[in-house]
Every structure is written in C-alpha cells, then in structure tokens.
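Retro notes (design track)

What went well: tokenization of the new backbones is finally stable.
What didn't: we kept losing track of which sequence belonged to which structure.
Fix going forward: every design gets posted as structure first, then sequence, in one message. First example under the new rule, 125 residues:
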C-alpha cells in the first residue's frame, strides 16, 4: 500500500467508539483515496457516531450528519481505520437540507488490525 497524507488535521475525529447514534439507512459507498477528494472540511457536521468491529470482526462506522448551514449542501463522509495508509471508505450524501440530520453507515472498511478510526465530513464543491 502506498502511504498518503489523510490531511484531516484538527477536523479528524479519532475513536475506538463513539456516542449514541440513530439507526442509519443503508447507502451505497465506494472506496477512494481521501487525498483525491476536493472539498471543505466541516468538523461540526458529524454529530453522533460509533466506529467499532462487528461480530464478524469487520469495522463498521455509523452516525448522523447534520447540515448546520442555511442552504442545501452535498457532503462526503470518509472513514479510515489504521495508520493513515491506503484508501478511505467514502459515502456521498447529496442535497442535505438546512437543519436536516441524515443517518449514515459505512461497512467493509479497509483497516489495520487495531485501528484507530478516523472520520471526516467534507462539503463538496
């Protein structure tokens, strides 16, 4: 795997577990390098999340994204588990309305054996 700078700085949330989360809807997702994605980080958009292994030992991230702005926005949620190498698991949430809270779930996260879990929300251009 090639090393890449995930570029999350202070907007990155690092955890082995999180706070309470709503039951998320299943949404399609793709794997891609976070360094290839343009957007503005929104550290306040992810209001609740968990990131932990399921009963089969696979990493699963669930949470809620909230648009705190005054206009509809497209978001990209990225999750990476490990030492910041390789591709992140991403999920695009289109046209999130002002004040709207959208549940999300990301599965099949590429990971290192022990974590940690990194989450980021980007506002897409």
């Amino acid at each position: 795997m090639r090393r890449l700078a995930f570029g999350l700085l202070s907007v990155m949330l690092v955890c082995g577990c999180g706070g309470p989360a709503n039951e998320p809807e299943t949404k399609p997702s793709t794997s891609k390098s976070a360094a290839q994605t343009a957007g503005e980080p929104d550290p306040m958009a992810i209001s609740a999340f968990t990131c932990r292994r399921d009963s089969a030992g696979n990493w699963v991230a669930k949470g809620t994204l909230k648009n705190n702005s005054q206009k509809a926005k497209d978001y990209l949620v990225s999750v990476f588990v490990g030492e910041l190498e390789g591709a992140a698991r991403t999920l695009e949430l289109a046209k999130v309305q002002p004040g709207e809270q959208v549940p999300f779930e990301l599965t099949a996260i590429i990971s290192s054996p022990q974590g940690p879990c990194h989450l980021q929300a980007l506002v897409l251009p």
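Added context from the reviewer: Confidence is low (pLDDT under 50) at residues 1-28.
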